[in-house]
Amino acid sequence: MSAIKKDYKKVTTKSLIEMKTNGEKISMLTAYDYTMAKIVDTAGIDVILVGDSASNVMAGHETTLPITLDQMIYHASSVVRAVDRALVVVDLPFGSYQSDSKEALRSSIRIMKESGGHAVKLEGGKEIKDSIKKILNAGIPVMGHLGLTPQSIYKFGTYSVRAKEEAEAEKLIEDAKLLQDLGCFALVLEKIPAYLAQKVAESISIPVIGIGAGGGVDGQVLVIHDMLGMNNEFSPRFLRRYMNLYEGMTSAISQYVEDVKSKDFPNEKEQY
Asked: What average pLDDT does the chain have?
């Protein structure tokens, strides 16, 4: 049965559930600034994630932990101003929701009011259910995130595949169903076995978006810098590079340097 593709002038949380029902895959990419978000939105992406991965690709940190709530709001504001069609989901950064549910609500309200984002994303399952409930009760849409949760990297000690063992896999399935029952509109599954991700997607009614979770889920997400080949040091199995911007940009900048040094730029046509 072929998927029913509907033309959405504006993607909402309801749109994503319709896509899952109709068998249409959901496309999702990260963006952190106005210019990139404008390009991504114009190209027809369904969801833009203002990810805490900005800590890595924009600020050069080793992990996602250092980025602050203020910094996330800055990035999200830049993205929202560029977007006409896509749903904009904003990561709640480490330390802005784990301590207690009231802090989680305050952080979410700040993101929604100050950035104009459309939803927030939190990492974790049962252990953060009170925070999710309080955020949802305030009318703020929540996207869940299970599997490899980068904010817990020091707990895991590695970025390797999660939920390969039966106990962890069972907990992941339970958490996915809990997030659905709490009222989350969608769920990200990161770096887990493909068979498990498909099992989760088939067992819940909300959309499941994967990154390193195989093709049996309802959509896919990648970090924009990775899929455009701007980062040539990161090559996990799940990554498909659609361009090699690292080489192209390096070549262009080198040529610019050469042209300036040789006095070729600017030429007579390029000056007033």
From this structure: 95
Residues 6+ apart with CB under 8 A from 64: 51, 52, 53, 55, 56, 93, 94, 150, 151, 153
Helices (H) and strands (E) in the chain, counts: 11, 8
Residue 164's pLDDT is 82
pLDDT score of 94: 95
DSSP symbol at 199: H
| Strand pairing category for 208-211 and 186-190 | parallel
CA distances from 224 to 81, 171, 221, 231 (A): 18, 30, 9, 10
Kindly give the interhelix angle for 69-80 and 101-115, rounded to the nearest 10 degrees.
Answer: 30
Q: What is the C-alpha to C-alpha distance for residues 129 and 61, in angstroms, rounded to an integer?
A: 29
- By annotation, the residues acting in catalysis are 190
Sign of CA dihedral 23, 5, 238, 168: negative
Which amino acid appears at position 57 of this protein? V
160 pLDDT tier (thresholds 50, 70, 90):
confident
Q: Are 219 and 49 in contact (CB under 8 A)?
A: no
The model scores a pTM over 0.70: yes
Taking the C-alpha atoms of residue 151 and residue 163, their distance in angstroms, rounded to an integer, is 17
Contact assessment for residue 115 and residue 144, using Cβ atoms and an 8 Å cutoff: no
Q: Tally Cβ neighbours within 10 Å of residue 260.
A: 11
Question: What is the distance, to the nearest Å, from the Cα of residue 88 to the centroid of all Cα atoms in its chain?
Answer: 9
